[in-house]
Specification:
- The chain is built from three helices and no strands.
- The chain is an all-alpha fold.
- The chain folds into two domains: about 30 residues, no CATH class; about 50 residues, no CATH class.
- The radius of gyration is 17 Å and the shape is flat.
Length: about 80
C-alpha cells in the first residue's frame, strides 16, 4: 500500500516529501476494535500547546472523543484473560 501512495505522490507533481509514508499504518483507528483512547488525541493537544494554539489545560482528550457508540470498545478495554 505504501508503494501505491508513493506513486500517487509522485504523480501529483507537487514537490511533496514522501518520507512520512513509512509511518503510515492504516486508514482506521489504531486501537483494538476501533476503540479510541486519550493517547490518540493527547499528542495533538500537546503539539498545539507547544505551538501556542492552545493554553495548557484548556482542552482535555476526553472532550474530543467518545466510544459510546462503539459496541466493541468494551472488549478493547477489558483485560486479557
Amino acid at each position: 500500500m505504501i508503494e501505491r501512495f508513493r506513486r500517487l505522490v509522485a504523480k501529483r507533481g507537487r514537490n511533496e516529501n514522501d518520507d512520512v509514508l513509512k509511518y503510515w499504518r492504516s486508514y482506521g483507528v489504531a486501537g483494538p476494535h476501533g476503540a479510541m483512547s486519550d493517547k490518540d488525541f493527547q499528542v495533538w493537544i500537546d503539539w498545539m500547546v507547544k505551538d501556542g494554539e492552545l493554553e495548557p489545560g484548556q482542552l482535555s482528550a476526553q472532550q474530543l472523543y467518545t466510544n459510546e457508540l462503539n459496541p466493541f470498545a468494551a472488549r478493547a478495554a477489558a483485560p486479557s484473560p
